[in-house]
Write a structure and sequence with these properties.
With 219 residues, the chain is mainly beta. The protein contains three helices and 15 strands. It is elongated.
Length: 219
């Protein structure tokens, strides 16, 4: 595995939240390998989950949910949520193969210590995501964008994004009803990040399904 040279090593208890009367919005230092703080989950994305142990020296395997696992060969830290806090753990060694990363954390040196991490979800800050261009987007990125359709005009602001099995959809409110707009490349004409606008060309009749309007109603 690749060794990450970043600071001193130190042993410490896994998930040991330090005793402190400080306010929870400050950073807690429990040891040199891990710190806890309250976080807004919306500021992080899921990299994957810890699937199994690896060896007998405290390493484990992260099953990564990404199309570009090579981007994470030099991870220096990972975040693991626990209760209402997030623990930031420093990476000592890492090796990436396909969509799996074998990771050894500082201060996690035994099978018992590593076992605490099994089945937990691994998060990273959003600013670690690469910038996308064109019609590609992250779900969190387009929240509060406005959808403007070539046929229907301005439909409204994206309130929610749902990752459905068929394809993602944007939830907007129109006349007091939630409208679900398919976020597929065929329907998206342009995505303007600067002006926070998505221009679409939706199939005829799609909006009427929600608004109960038909061509007869317009006559």
């Amino acid at each position: 595995m690749q060794k990450i040279e970043d600071g001193d090593k130190n042993t410490g208890s896994v998930f040991q939240k330090p005793e402190s009367s400080e306010k929870l919005n400050l950073i807690y230092i429990s040891d040199r390998s891990v710190y806890f703080r309250l976080v807004n989950k919306d500021d992080y994305f899921e990299l994957g989950y810890i699937s199994r142990l690896h060896g007998v020296k405290g390493a484990f395997v992260i099953q990564m949910d990404t199309d570009h696992p090579e981007r994470y060969r030099n991870l220096k830290e990972i975040w693991v949520l626990k209760d209402n806090s997030a623990g930031c753990f420093r990476v000592e060694e890492i090796s990436v193969r396909n969509n799996e990363a074998i990771v050894k954390l500082q201060g996690v040196n035994t099978v018992d210590a590593a076992s605490d991490f099994i089945r937990k979800t691994v998060y990273l800050p959003l600013d670690m995501l690469p910038q996308l261009t064109g019609k590609q987007f992250y779900f969190h990125e387009i929240k509060d964008f406005f959808i403007k359709d070539i046929t229907y005009g301005e439909l409204g602001k994206i309130e929610s994004v749902y990752n459905l099995p068929q394809h993602p959809v944007a939830g907007i409110m129109l006349n007091g009803k939630e409208i679900l707009i398919p976020l597929v490349s065929d329907f998206i004409e342009t995505l303007d990040r600067e002006n926070k606008t998505i221009c679409t060309q939706l199939p005829e009749g799609m909006i009427e399904v929600y608004t109960n309007k038909t061509e007869k109603d317009d006559d």
